[in-house]
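Aim 2, interim progress: modelling of the zinc ion-bound target.
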Amino acid sequence: MSSCVTICPIGPVDEGILEHIAECISIRCGLNCRISMRMENPRYAYNDTRCQYNSRLILKHLLQQCPFDTLRLIGITPVDLYVPILKFVFGLAQIEGKCSIISLHRLCPRFYDQPSNPDLLLARVEKTVLHELGHTFGMTHCRDRRCVMYSSVRIEDTDLKQPDFCPTCFELFQWYLKKSLQQSS
Ligand SMILES: [Zn+2]
Ligand SMILES: [Zn+2]
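Predicted structure of the complex, ligand included:
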């Protein structure tokens, strides 16, 4: 039970995207996933000067709602996220914590005035989810531009990296994962 990752839509999120995330986590990390009930649009985190949502406030809220029997909780939201020192974030995670959140807003090709492309969107979502999940297990950024733990500053960074850990990060990830599973059992 405690090796289960919960995927939580926050606001309206396409079912196909949630299922894709569940599949990718189970294939790449060997963890079971469940998709939880949808949370309301996070109005409490809205900043009307920036017209964006404060990702730290949403993370805090997720942590309060986090089921005790889940290993990790990943929030997926269509709203645009920020942290106070940055213009935006693709996602945010508690380092070595339980929760992370991913925004679909800037992963959509349409945001860049490009035609809608569901496959490209799913590929970006997969990389962003793996990256944030990696952080929750204690992983830091990698210098290898092809590694999923490379820090994405622009969407081009995300498109360049692979939906996989580099060999060094993969080994580290397996070690962290094992450690977490031992602690939670
Ligand atoms: Zn990161
Ligand atoms: Zn790496």
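The first helix runs from residue 15 to 29. The CA atoms of residues 127 and 163 lie 5 Å apart.
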